[in-house]
Write a structure and sequence with these properties.
- The chain is α/β, with parallel strands linked by helices.
- It folds into two domains: about 100 residues, Conserved hypothetical protein from pyrococcus furiosus pfu- 392566-001, ParB domain, CATH 3.90.1530.10; about 60 residues, no CATH class.
- It contains eight helices and five strands.
- A five-stranded mixed β-sheet has the order 1-5-3-4-2.
- The longest helix has 16 residues.
């Protein structure tokens, strides 16, 4: 029975010593690596799963994605971290990373109803200068927002377009925290 027959693709805990990395370091800034490392140390785990595949050597994996996460786990002195193991050889597993990348882009934060309600009130009552404090709202958009008032329910945001209000909502959430 080959090593491919022994495993199934799934999230797994892997010892960092089992993971082979193809390059020495990522291009992630030291500030971001420290931030990730500190969070991993506090939580004692990683939330984003690097993708690994089987290696020719048994009980060893090739890192395909997530080098900064691996680096942060090492800096946090973790012995092991969560990975998504693709139980295939490197060539086959690399095809699956395309799907993994696509899915991770769809893994957005859920925005609570409370924030949506606060955002609608903000759009309905804020002055031009307050509106332009949000990322993505320039003077022209601020005047458009004021000109299309009132906003009472989330459906009213359609007056402003399909995509813009969502990016403004995300900016509002960050700004209001």
């Amino acid at each position: 029975m080959s090593i491919l027959d022994k495993s199934k693709s799934k999230p797994s805990l892997a010892f960092l010593s089992q993971i082979k990395i193809p390059q020495q370091s990522s291009s992630t800034s030291q500030k971001d690596l420290k931030s990730m490392s500190d969070a991993m140390r506090d939580w004692e785990l990683n939330f984003a799963l690097p993708v690994v595949c089987l290696d020719k050597q048994e009980d060893t994996y090739q890192l395909l994605t997530g080098l900064p996460i691996y680096e942060a786990a090492k800096a946090a002195n973790l012995d092991k971290m969560w990975v998504f193991l693709i139980a295939k050889n490197r060539t086959e597993a690399q095809k699956a990373t395309i799907h993994a990348s696509f899915q991770s882009k769809l893994n957005e934060d859920i925005i609570s109803d409370d924030i949506v309600e606060q955002f609608i009130i903000f759009l309905d009552t804020a002055k031009i200068g307050e509106l332009t404090q949000l990322k993505g709202i320039k003077d022209g958009y601020a005047h458009l927002i004021v000109g299309k008032r009132p906003y009472k329910i989330s459906g009213d945001l359609k007056k402003l377009g399909k995509k813009r209000p969502i990016s403004w909502l995300k900016a509002y959430r960050e700004w209001s925290e």
